Amino acid sequence: MLQKDTIKPLGILPTVIFYLVPAIILYVTHYLIVPSYLQRTGFPYLTGYIIGWFPTMLMFFIAALAAYRMEGNPWTGKSFADRYRLKRISGKDMIWTLAVLVFMGVTYFGLAFTTELLARVTIFAPHPSFAPEFGPEGASAHVPGAFMGMVLKGKWWVAAVFFLGWFFNIAGEELWFRGYILPRQERAFGKNAWIANGIMFWLNHIWQPWNLLILLPGILFGVYAVQRRQNTWILLISHGLLNFTLPVIVLLNVSGFSV
Fold first, then answer.
1. Which sequence spans correspond to the domains of the chain?
2. 52: Cβ–Cβ under 8 A, 6 or more apart, which residues?
3. pLDDT tens digits for range 116-134
4. CA distances, 121 to each of 23, 118, 138, 141 (Å)
5. For the whole model, what pTM was predicted?
6. 173 within 8 A of 60, measured Cβ to Cβ
7. Where does residue 148 rank: exposed (0-12), middle (13-18), buried (19+ CB within 10 A)?
């Protein structure tokens, strides 16, 4: 059985540190390591993106599991679900999940025009090596049958990597930020913990600065819903569904359907 007193408060300074470490890793990976790799190899951007994206998402997943164990919690499903608030989804939870999903979608696409505006400012612009689809042009720059400079037909390893990456992306970020960190922030900030957690997660995307405005409303509302309902599944589901379109598009193109 999980002992509730193992959850220690996470104040301002630890919150900043917990933000800075992964944010720096993400920034260095995508702005220094990946561009250098692409320049040396001449490979399509997609290969560099996978090399940068997959391990960093796996990093969050491993960190969430390690943090759970470092608190002295037992390796049992019940204790893990209790500590990370993976509760049974009730009718109200489903309504909140749907509300988060809709709100995220509406605000993301409704504020899409801000990405090009921000990208005009040097400090918010993507790295020159970034593929057009990854930058502010987004889906409008997509070439049917290809993705980030690589023709996908028959490349099943790419589809496999994207599905695994999607899992580690969603499970890693939500278990780390909402499962492990948010309850600790609640001990320090009380009812305002969702603000600290939301801003922390939002700034963790600083390596995509042109996306900051379209991400903020959905992130804050999503974290608020999780704290209000005390259920991490709300963002695991809504975040997962929103991001699931990408591996599906990759799979279709790998299968020979140029979309």
1. 7-254
2. 29, 30, 33, 34
3. 999 999 999 999 999 998 8
4. 21, 6, 17, 20
5. 0.94
6. yes
7. buried
Quick check: 1 pLDDT over 70? Answer: no
Close Cβ partners of 95 (under 8 Å, ≥ 6 residues apart) = none
Which residue's structure tokens are 């540190």?
A: 17
Q: d(Cα 8, Cα 187) in Å, to the nearest integer?
A: 7
pLDDT, one tens digit per residue, over 152-201 is: 999 999 999 999 999 999 999 999 999 999 999 999 999 999 999 999 99
User: Given pLDDT bands bounded at 50, 70 and 90, which one contains residue 2?
Assistant: very low
- DSSP code string of the chain: ---GGG-----HHHHHHHHHHHHHHHHHIIIIIHHHHHHHH---HHHHHHHHHHHHHHHHHHHHHHHHHHTT--S-HHHHHHHTT-PPP-HHHHHHHHHHHHHHHHHHHHTTHHHHHHHTSGGGSPPTTS-GGGSTTGGGG--TTEETTEE-TT-HHHHHHHHHHHHHHHHHHIIIIIIIIHHHHHHHHGGGHHHHHHHHHHHTTTTSGGGHHHHHHHHHHHHHHHHHHT-THHHHHHHHHHHTHHHHHHHHHHTT---
Residue 217 is which amino acid?
P
Copy the structure tokens of residue 134: 């990854």
